[in-house]
Specification:
Strand content: 15-25%
CATH class of the domain at 49-144: Alpha Beta
CATH superfamily of the domain at 49-144: 2,3-Dihydroxybiphenyl 1,2-Dioxygenase, domain 1
Number of strands: 6
Distance between the termini: 45 Å
CATH architecture of the domain at 49-144: Roll
Radius of gyration: 16 Å
Oligomer: single chain
Structural class: alpha+beta
Order of helices and strands: HEEEHEEE
């Protein structure tokens, strides 16, 4: 199959105006279609990075994200979020999902977590210390970020130290 395909994600939101403002920043694009109860973006310059894992307590969508090709592009996105009044969590030098990455986590108006990141290199461990933790050391829990966005604390068996 050589025809272009596009991943479709539909998220139910409570406030369409707040969500449009967030996603205009997230996608760095105006919506393609806007109705009083609906908005759509057709983003041609995003290709898919789809991941699954057995980690995390809750099954289903863990988080969404955009992978950038450079730290400069990631920093530009972070600046755009901050200018739009969207405060996120910077996570430089993260070791997660078999990658070393710099990240900027944001939360949309419905609570959906978005990971904006640039991966520098492949590594051979899932998390910081290589332990096979059940919760997946880098599972985002935005509301409880400390220094590392994760579902474990630095006191938990060295998980995020």
């Amino acid at each position: 199959m050589n025809e272009k395909r596009r991943l479709h994600i539909h998220i139910s939101v409570e406030n369409i105006e707040q969500s449009i403002a967030f996603y205009k920043t997230q996608f760095q694009a105006e919506p393609t279609k806007v109705k009083e109860d609906y908005a759509q973006w057709l983003i041609d310059d995003l290709s898919l990075n789809f991941a699954i894992s057995t980690r995390g307590y809750d099954k289903g969508v863990n988080h969404l994200g955009i992978q950038y090709e450079s730290d400069e592009a990631l920093e530009e996105a972070q600046t755009l979020f901050e200018k739009a009044g969207i405060k996120g969590k910077e996570d430089k030098g993260a070791v997660c999902c078999y990658k070393a990455s710099n990240k900027y986590w944001v939360e949309d108006p419905t609570g959906m977590i978005w990971e904006n990141y640039h991966s520098m290199e492949d590594i051979e461990v899932f998390g910081v210390d290589g332990k096979d933790t059940a919760d997946g050391c880098c599972t985002p829990t935005f509301g409880t970020f400390s220094e590392t966005p994760s579902s474990c604390s630095p006191d938990d068996s060295g998980c995020c130290s």
